[in-house]
Every structure is written in structure tokens, then in C-alpha cells.
Amino acid sequence: MTNQEQDIFEIISHGGNARSLAYEALTAAEEYDFEKAESLLKEASAELGHAHKTQTRLIQAELNGNPTEKSLLMIHAQDHLMTAISEQKLIEHMVRIIKKLKEER
After folding, report:
1. Least buried of 41, 72, 93, 94, by fewest C-beta within 10 Å?
2. For residue 6, with 0-12 CB atoms within 10 Å meaning exposed, 13-18 middle and 19 or more buried, which class applies?
3. Which residues of 17-47 are buried (b: 16+ CB within 10 A; e: fewer)?
């Protein structure tokens, strides 16, 4: 496996982990376990941080004249990460809404 392939799989793996953790957090919030939801969202953010760090390294390499080979797998990794980030933000908002609704009962 090349370094680039390893980087791609890191982005996909960490992005997928983040997405799974975010959905677990949403399930916890539906059960009104907000402490667990917050903990899972923190874990999801850490996973996104790992993926973003790899992505940033690839971008910096390209800016420094060492471009990354464009491939369908790289495009998939970027799409996967972008979706995970978007869903994380949406789920964070949903957890806040569920918490607010619970408090208003």
C-alpha cells in the first residue's frame, strides 16, 4: 500500500468512525441520555480531527509542489469526510433541540 492509499484510508476510516459515533450520540439523546450523547459527540469530533489532519497534510503537500494523485478513491474519501462533518454538525444541533424540548416538558 502506498502512502497516498494509506492517507486515503485514514480519511475514510476516521470519517466513518466519526459518523457512527455521531449517530450513536443521536440515539443517546433520543433516550434523554445527554451526558452519553455529549461524550460520543466529543469522540466523533476527535475522529474528525484525525481525518482533517491527514487531509490538511495532503493539501499542504500539494501547495508545496507535491500534488496528490487524483483518483476515484481520493474523491470518495473527501466526499466521505465532508458528509461526516456535515452530519456531525446537524446531529449536534438535533441533540440541542432534543435537550431543549426535554427541559420544556
Report:
1. 72
2. exposed
3. bbbebbebbbebbeeeebeebbebbebbbeb
* Residue 37 and residue 26 in contact, taking contact as beta carbons nearer than 8 Å: yes
Q: What is the pLDDT of residues 69-90, one digit of tens each?
A: 889 999 999 999 999 999 999 9
Q: Is residue 1 part of a domain?
A: no
Query: pTM of the predicted model, to two decimals?
Result: 0.91
Residues spanned by the domain of 69: 17-103
- How many structural domains comprise the chain? 1
Catalytic residue among 14, 50, 52, 76: 76
The CATH number covering residue 93 comes to: 1.20.58.80
In a domain? residue 85 = yes
Q: Among this protein's residues, is 93 annotated catalytic?
A: no
